[in-house]
Design brief:
CATH topology of the largest domain: Rossmann fold
Mean pLDDT: 94
Structural class: alpha/beta
Number of helices: 18
Number of strands: 13
Helix content: 40-55%
Number of domains: 2
Strand order of the largest sheet: 3-2-1-4-5-6-7
CATH superfamily of the largest domain: Glycogen Phosphorylase B
Strand content: 15-25%
Distance between the termini: 13 Å
Length: 405
Amino acid sequence: MNPTRPIRVVFLCQRVPWPPDRGDRITTWHFLQHLLQRGADVFVGCFAEEERDAEGVAFLAKNCREVVAPFLSRKSRKLTSLRGLLTGEALTLPFFRDRGLAAAVARQAAAGPIDLVHVYSSSMAQYALDVPARAKVMQFAELDSDKWRQYAATSGPLGRWIYGREARRLLAFEDRVARAFPCSAVVSEVERELFRERIPGVEPVVLPNGVDTDHFTSAGDADRHAHTAVFTGVMDYEPNVDGVCWFADACWPTLRARFPDARLLVVGSKPVPRVQALAQRPGITVTGRVPTTPPFFDRAAVAIAPLRLARGVQNKVLEAMSMGLSVVSSPQAAQGLGDVPAGTLTIADGAEATIAGVAAAFADPTHARRMGRAAGEWVRREWRWQRMLERYDDVLARLGVTFAR
């Protein structure tokens, strides 16, 4: 590789990686931004899903060689994905398949040597399996097939069959991809253990998410309410929907009875009807899309992450901790963080423990603030994006990818 010229990169991800306002966009934007800051010449292939994505594409096009983002209608693509039943493949693959995007990637390969192919999410690997490149990174983050396995375990007979089939077929594709790419990356040690179990013989590297500690910094306690809890996340994502609705059903009535002025802020875009209906319950506010989440963290005494269907590193937990907020998390939402220092996070398994954790924060604001400050110090020390991107540079160096000086 000639270190005097910019490296040519093909960067593939499911969604337009801007703005960084949801988990996958946050991750893909930081890795893409890092490549651009290092002087890379980047082609981005992704999908647009809503009108405002045009602004994201325009923003990225100012700094990238080319951005190709065909529109993806999730409603119509669900019908398209049924082709997988005829071909025997995972339904996820035809869902994210587009001829125009495939042709654009092929043009990039024909235009000259590609130094790096970086793929985020296994569904996008179908565009890069046969593309020659000096180095390839498959950023699984977590195995999507395991998400479908979890759905199957909690569904009725039809769901068990459909989701179970998807889990098996997608795992077979993930296995193929992992063996074809020289580098597979996962988001946590927990995910690495699962990867080793499901795809034996391939050793993944761990590339954790980080948190933008400059953005997620508290402005102070002026608007903080001692009996307010906050939940953040995209509210059409099933694990978020399941988690917050479970909390509202299993925990909130008891907390409201104990603290009559208690409030729950459900903060995030695209709330589905089931989530919108929560606003009819005493003390619950459903905001929909907001410009930025830090002001809502600053109104709360505690953040909750009661996810029952979760793997990997949860940005909502890191962001709340970075804001200096006490957090009550399910074991599933906390497992990607590894060994968390005592006094920085309350891990609660089940309704009784979750109620106790939130009630403790409501009842003793001083202790809650003390835990929040300790959490913030730990996140700023261990989970800054700069630290995570240094790991990425190490991975690229081992693959022989060097940047122009």
